[in-house]
Amino acid sequence: MSIIGIKEVIRRIKEEKLITGLGGRDFSNPEGTGIDLRLGAVHEIIGGGAYIEADGEAGLGRRKGVETKEIFALKDGEVQDELIIKPGQYYLVQTAETVNTPLDLMPMLYPRSSLFRAGLLLLVTKTDPGYKGKLTLGITNLGAFEVKLQLGARICNIVFHKIEGEVIGYRGQHQGGRVSHGEETQV
To answer: Angle at the Cα of 16 (from 13 to 18), degrees rounded to 5?
Structure first.
């Protein structure tokens, strides 16, 4: 698996809408091999009881997510809200951008170093081929001091790996950018 270069990423953004909703700087002045993504929404966990059950004879493959509430969202053309993250606090955050992942690519997310330099840990993952939607990540403050994070701030970098061979496209419950869910059976 190889990483596709920035010129190919830009071409696919223009021609295939690989990423939509990009900020001006992120599209016009990229660096390296990836594109920076911005903080678009913040969700607070307001209810627990999450579980993930085993598949097969040991379980039915059921799962239940936490209950969340959106507390901030990016606003067009306005001064943006600031999330103050106190030590130990945890939120689910979404990117401002939407990805439209084709079956020949697998995006990987990497936190921007400005976050961990401030004591923030951004929990990221790969994105499966075929996934379409905003990306949901976890963020927590591991430091001793509160950190202000403004909506629209660049929080991570997305890099696309080229896949060789067959894939099965994403068909999970979070397609479309869903942040949390009630009880349901895994796909």
So the answer is: 50
Q: What is the 3-state secondary structure (H, E, C) of the chain?
A: CEECCHHHHHHHHHHHCCEECCCHHHHHCCECCEEEEEEEEEEEEEECCCEECCCHHHCCCEEECCEEEEEEECCCCCCCCEEEECCCCEEEEEEEEEEECCCCEEEEEEECHHHHHCCEEEECCECCCCCEEEEEEEEEECCCCCEEEECCCEEEEEEEEECCCCCCCCCCCCCCCCCCCCCEECC
pTM of the model: 0.93
Please give the domain boundaries of the chain with CATH numbers for all domains: 2-48+62-167 (2.70.40.10)
User: What is the residue type of 101?
Assistant: T
Count of residues making up the chain: 187
Q: How far is CA 136 from the centre of its chain?
A: 4
User: pLDDT (tens digit, 9 = 90+) per residue, 135-183?
Assistant: 999 999 999 999 999 999 999 999 999 999 999 999 888 888 989 888 8
